Every structure is written in structure tokens, then in C-alpha cells.
Structure prediction request, 501 residues.
Amino acid sequence: MARKRKPGAEHEKEPAAPEKLQKKNPPSGIPGAIGKSVREDRCVQILIGLTIIGAIIRFYHLDWNSIWLDEAFTYNAAKGSLLDIWNTMEVGDFHPPLFHWIEHFMLTFGHSEVVLRFIPAVLGICTIPLFFILGKELADERIGVLSAALLTFSPFHLFYSQEAYSYSAVLFVFTIVLYCYLRALRTRERTFWLLTGAFSALAFWIHFYTLIPVIFIYIHAFLAALPERSKGLEAFRNILYSGIALAVLISPLIPIVVQRYFTLTARPPTYGVLGPALISETFIRFSAFTIPVAVVFILLFAAGTLYLYRLNKPIFWLWLMLIILPVLFSVAISSRMTMNPRYLIFLLAVFYPGIACTYLWARKYSARQWIVFAFIAAFALVNAPTLVSYYQGYSKEDWRGFAGAMKNNTLPGDIVVLVPGYLKMPFDYYYSNATDGTTELGAASVSELEAITGMKGEHRIFYIVTPDITAANPEGDVTRWIQEKAAFAGDYTNIYVFISQ
Prediction:
């Protein structure tokens, strides 16, 4: 009996012979899929190029800047045991222990600047393909490529990829959080909800401030589930499981965070970027550190995010919440505790993909691939001046060079006073008073300085001061005392030296 054909089947091709199918099939498994993408997918090829460029500029001159205060704290903390690092969190620096634990193990490879900065640089490089994956999930591959390009040439991200501190790790993990959440919203798979909770907890173990955007993500998840509330608990079950996973994993840190928060907010902050200035300063730093680029980037972000409204309204509201609410919260809380744009580095995972979405408007008129290259070239060009200047001079205090200058200008018996005293951390990374034959002390008040003056005898006193004194002594009487009692001997990359008269 003749078999009936389906309508339109006359256009279907006959099945290929089994041996022909076998020859045409790509290699099986993940390696085969990756190999095929590398050979055939132009966006993946561009991404590989961007990642290589990102690696070059993040490893280039990795040891150029000397260790500065925050990095020196990382080094001093990492030298202790794992328990010592935990105790430091409770009484010293208000940061979770995970990054310092990682650096603790890195010290087995040496104590150089490269070793200390190696993990931040690697995580900074790995975040470039993560931005591609995030942008692809947000819209498509080309948005992923443009998001990765913005991060590749970002001076702000480069700066923290070459710093022995936790900020490149923050962006790396938060990008994963955001990707998992977008996948959870789209697929409703419990696995991605649980991964959202797990990686949110990991982000919290790296930097406490990541809890702020995570809270807004869960608020968005609750609001997105409200239209299905007629299903009862089932509509919120995955959110609940994710939230429980997060709460359990961060529970050891919560009592410490609450206690330290009330301790640190007992008096107004004495340094940082405070009030509404935090908004403008944050987006200027995100935008090649220049105001004109910041204006253009903000307009592009607005245009790109507006297109998201046409594609997916819940994602549009998520992007709007994540770019606005953490910034406003930070401005509000800056009256109680120190704020700095680097605390908001996680916003790059929202800001740059939002800018990249501007391409969706251009695609309406022409989908030619050269437009993507034009966008990438434009991103590279606007960041180029800042990148070039970054490599031409020191962007941090040059404690390495300063320590060498002190060795050449001090005599045995001289007294070296660090004002405030915690400047000993970056200074002593390069300087040894034992080999130089000097006495090294710290001071942060007039009474301490006067007590040290009584020890002078026949020797000189070198007072080493940086702008950090305004945080330790906001009253300013320490600076006035030094200016009255000692002669200014010069400055060295914002390190000021006074010599007793």
C-alpha cells in the first residue's frame, strides 16, 4: 500500500544515507561543540580575540605599581593562619575572609606583587567571556560580544584586575549570579534557582556589599512571580528554595556583619565619596574616567535598556532596578558609613550589557556584521587615552620607590614616623628599619607626636604623611602640628615627607 504524504512533504529532502550522516556530523560532546563554534561562529572568534587582548592588558605591567595600603592589608592578613584571617574580619578590616584565604594559599608561590595580583588578574580576564555569556542570555550573541568588548577595554575594570583586593572577584561571581537568575527566569529550572542562591552566597563571602544587589534580585523574582500567585505556594517554591540556600550558606557571617555594621556606623564617615556625588563619580569611573564619555554611555544605556522593554518587560524592570536602586541605597547609607564607587563594581554587569543593547536599535536598519566591529572600535577608541595614560605613570602611591629614597637619605639612629601608623603596612613591604638602622614608629594624634619628639636626641625625625591622615584625624590638628614643628622635604606620589627642625 502506498504511504500517504504529509501536506508540503513534496519539498522535503530524502534522508541521507547513514554513512553520509556519519561523515558530516561534527565531533560529539562538549569539545566537538566548542571546536565547531571556534571554526564557524564569528562572534565566538571575536570573543577569543577580545579575551586575548584583555589578558594582555591585564597582565602587562602587573607589577608596575607598588603595593599600596589596601593591597598591603591583603598581604598582612594573608600571612596569618586561616583562623587569624577570620579573626581579622571580626576586629579589623570589614571584609569577608574568602579572598584573603585564597591569597593565603597564593603566598606559597612567593610574596611578589605578581603573585598577590595574579588571582584578580585571572578573574578579570575570565569575566570577559562571562560577559559574552550574560549578554547572549540577555538578548543574543552580538550583545554578548559588545558587552565583552566594553569590559575588555574598561580602565576601571583593568585597574581592579591589577589590584590585590577582592573587587575583580566580586564582578566575576556577580556576573554568574545574574546569568543564573536570567536562566532561572527563562527556563524555570530549579537547578538555576539553586545556583542563583549558591553563587549569591559566594559573592557575599567575597564582599559584604554584594548582598544589596542580591536583595533586589530576589525582590524582582517575587514581583515577577506575582501574576501566578493563583497557583499558591507553587508559584514561589523555587524562589523559596533559592533563598533558603542563600540564607544557610551565609549564616555564619550574619552575626558578624550586624555587629560590625553598628560599630562602623557609630560615627559619620571621614573619607570616601559621599552623598549625591557618589552617583556621578561612579558612572564617570565606569566610563573611561571622563565626563563626556560618561554622558554618552548613560544615554546609550538608556536607549539599550528601553529596547529591552520591547523584548522582555520583566528583564527591563530588572535592569532598571539593578542600575538605580543600589546606587540610591548607597547614596542614602553614605551618611552612615564610608562609600566608594569600587563597592559598586558589580553594576558593570548591568551597565555594560545595557549599553550593548543599543545595537538592537541599529540592527533594525542593518544587520551587517561590520556594525558590530564599528561598535567595538568605538569602545576601544574612547577608552584608549585613559588606558595609555594608565601605563605611562603610577596610578597608586609609589611605596617601592619611596622606600628606596628613604634608605638613601636616612642615617642610623634616625626616627621614621608613619602618620597614620597603619601606613607601616605598605611601607614595610619594601622597607626594613632593621637593615637601615632606624627606629620606626606610628602616630595619629598630637599627643603621640609630642611623645615621639621627646625621643629625638641628636637624631632627626622623618614624618611620613599621606592624605589618609584626614580619615584617621579629621580634626586636622595632626597635620597642623607637623607643619609647625617640621620642615617640608618634598612629596613622592602623594607621600609627603617632613623633617624635624
Summary: Residues 1-24 have pLDDT under 50 and may be disordered.
